[in-house]
Amino acid sequence: MAEFSWPVRVYYEDTDAGGIVYYANYLKFCERARTEWLRALGVEQDIWLREGIGFVVRHVALDLRAPALFNDTLRVTVVPSRIRKASIECRQEIYNAAGTLLCVADVKAACVHLNTMKPVAIPGPIIEVIGRGS
């Protein structure tokens, strides 16, 4: 499936006292990229949230390979790897400006009804644009 990428700048707030990105912040970078990927496909999540439909991360596997540093410019990719009735799995990679792979994240997000937090089928319009964008 097609790769989407999103630029991220490392701010001081993203780092520890040594200027190295704190591991949990890689998850934030990935979340931003997935949101922008959906937005680029025309999926505005706030509209679906008003309908009671949202995506929640169910599983993440994070492989940290090299550190990102304060003021680095990063590229965060999103490649949907599996689309099921009520979930999407993505492979995400984070690279620095030199092209060094810093982090690999495998993310599974479930589509849920926010009132019950039970899985629901991903709405057809979202499936359609994801299919076209891949």
TrEMBL record:
Keywords: Hydrolase. Gene3D superfamilies: Hotdog Thioesterase. SUPFAM superfamilies: Thioesterase/thiol ester dehydrase-isomerase. It comes from the Bacteria. GO terms for molecular function: fatty acyl-CoA hydrolase activity. Belongs to the 4-hydroxybenzoyl-CoA thioesterase family. This is Tol-pal system-associated acyl-CoA thioesterase. The lineage of its organism: Bacteria, Pseudomonadati, Pseudomonadota, Gammaproteobacteria, Alteromonadales. The gene is ybgC.
